[in-house]
Write a structure and sequence with these properties.
Number of domains: 1
Low-confidence stretches: none
Structural class: mainly beta
Strand order of the largest sheet: 3-2-1-4
CATH architecture: Beta Barrel
Distance between the termini: 10 Å
CATH class: Mainly Beta
Helix content: under 10%
Mean pLDDT: 90
CATH topology: OB fold (Dihydrolipoamide Acetyltransferase, E2P)
Largest sheet: 4 strands, antiparallel
């Protein structure tokens, strides 16, 4: 089984060294793929990740949406 979720970037903060902490949250119904895991029009979900790979430091942008795929291994 796979869950597909759409999250938007709320903020990006510089961390120690050459890294960034990215905070994302689930987008509202009609703005993404969140109906696969939430029947609510305003799904709740938060993700915070630290990006340290130099080529990925500028990948996330505030206000943009990203599709996440979650599956059991």
């Amino acid at each position: 089984m796979t869950i597909t979720a759409t999250f938007g970037v709320d903020e990006i903060n510089a961390s120690a060294g050459n890294s960034r902490t990215v905070s994302l949250s689930a987008v509202h119904a009609g703005q993404g793929d969140n109906t696969s895991w939430s029947a609510e029009p305003f799904p709740a979900g938060e993700l915070e990740m630290t990006v340290t790979q130099p080529k990925m430091l500028d990948f996330f942008q505030p206000g943009k949406k990203y599709r996440l795929t979650i599956q059991a291994l």
